[in-house]
Amino acid sequence: MTSIILIDKGCNIKETKIKNITRDIIYSKCGFRKKENFELRTTWKLKIEETDYKIELWSRNVGKAGTENKYDFPPPVDNEMYFGTCALINSNKDNDIIDLTIEEWSKIYEVLFGGFEDLDSDNEDSEDELINVPDKFKTNGYLKDGFVVSSNSDEDTDYSNETSSEVGEEKYYYSDEYDESENESENESENESENENESENEKDKKNK
Question: Distance (Å, rounded) from C-alpha 40 to C-alpha 95?
């Protein structure tokens, strides 16, 4: 018996063993009553750990709405639409069908997609970058564009100076205005005193 991989429309992967398997009966193992539109779609050839693989994808590209197979197949068929259950088989140099297990397909799948990023290693790299940063900046500052910036930055200082300068100018402006009003009052008082003195002098002259 030979193992092949079946992938249904819900993306469920099943490894099944079939006796005396041929390419002519694969469609029936996928649940189709007729062979119509069930064909070989692509073949992936690769070598992993000294093992050669020749993986064939068999599927139907015509079907009813709601029976679309949502499995994400590797390139070059990653943008193709298939229906119902799809089959994956492995073959040797003589083109005979040989075993393909779920474990093997998982490795092949990863290689065909170019490998997946290791998120844990990315986190370790980020932590390593902070090793050379002084402890005082880890607690009191923050990192900006790769540089450490203190929380008491020059930008904050400049802003506070500009603010205090503007307030000082406003106070100075109002104080000048107040001084001018006081000066006007003093000038008016002086003028009134002078007028009174002149009136008294005129009276004295007339009395004489």
Answer: 14
